[in-house]
Amino acid sequence: MTELPVTWDEEADVVVIGYGFAGATAAITACDAGARVLLLEKAPEQHKGGNSRVSANIVFWPADVAGGEAYFRSLAGPYLDNISAEMIHVWATEMHANKAWLEGLGMTPVEMPYVEFPQLDGADCVRVLKNGEGPIGGPFDRHFL
Predict the structure, then answer these.
(1) Is 61 domain-assigned?
(2) Same structural domain, 60 and 37
(3) Average pLDDT, integer, range 131-137
(4) 28/90 same-domain check
(5) Interval 37-89: pLDDT, tens
(6) Which DSSP string corresponds to the chain?
(7) Predicted confidence band at 144 (pLDDT cuts at 50, 70, 90)?
């Protein structure tokens, strides 16, 4: 194990904690916007990826926005009263846009027919994406990270 310095001096516009899909997305977006990004990950290089690695590097994707809204409402169940219709629409719209965004990063999204809760309304829109062919998705990586 590498010894960490007791003190250090590093400056960045954005500090991202964790290198799963959420951390990678935040770092890429900030970097593409011109920010100097510091990405911190506690796992060793060969084990980076957090929950995304544990979930085989797959990404949930609603094939259409209306179906995504219906599925999210069903997932929220009795807690839906705490979530505005506008928030549900934003969630479904942005989740649907992820496939094109990932393609723009150079990922080759391959759809897998998997629905965690097929009995819920909107489940027919559910897809998961993985990077390329093979039994699990490939790594989500950019050389500048």
Answers:
(1) yes
(2) no
(3) 61
(4) no
(5) 998 888 887 777 777 777 777 888 999 999 999 999 999 998 888 899 999 99
(6) -PPPPSS-----SEEEE--SHHHHHHHHHHHHTT--EEEE--S-GGG--HHHHHTTT-EEEESSHHHHHHHHHHHHGGGGGGS-HHHHHHHHHHHHHHHHHHHHTT--EEEE---S-TTSTTGGGEEEEEESSSSS------TT-
(7) very low
69 exposure class (CB count in 10 Å sphere: 0-12, 13-18, 19+):
buried
Whether 90 and 112 map to the same domain: the answer is yes
- Residues in CB range of 63: below 8 A, 6 or more apart: 96, 125, 126, 127
Residues in Cβ contact with 113 at an 8 Å cutoff, skipping those fewer than 6 apart: 127
Q: Quick check: is 37 in a domain?
A: yes
8 and 24 assigned to the same domain: yes
Indicate whether 4 belongs to any domain.
Answer: yes
Domain hosting residue 13, numbered range: 1-55
Least confident of 20-29, 73-82, 133-142: 133-142
In a domain, 145, yes or no: no
